[in-house]
Design goal:
This protein is mainly alpha-helical. It is built from two helices and two strands, in the order αββα.
């Protein structure tokens, strides 16, 4: 895991992408709806169903969302509407 993190961080820096390291513990067991952390929220490796509120979905997707919320990274400034050329207007 340490090597993967180092390689990802290195490549992100080269691309100018900000990196936020987060503690991944319990991200796959935490319900994003009610916050319950319980191993029984993962009935299978691929699925997630909260035993408290019933929130359900793909386990990897839910874990990734939990990691993203923990990171709390502000996206870089992409410019305002005034800076977008008229040829790109909708």
């Amino acid at each position: 895991m340490g090597r993967r993190r180092g390689s990802g961080t290195y490549k992100a820096k080269l691309a100018g992408v900000p990196v936020a390291l987060v503690d991944p513990r319990n991200t796959s067991r935490t319900c994003p709806q009610c916050g319950l952390i319980d191993p029984h929220n993962r009935p299978t490796q691929a699925s997630f169903r909260c035993i408290a509120c019933g929130f359900a979905g793909p386990a990897d997707t839910i874990a990734a969302g939990n990691i993203a919320r923990r990171a709390a990274v502000n996206p870089p400034h992409a410019g305002s509407l005034q800076e977008i050329p008229a040829s790109f207007a909708l």
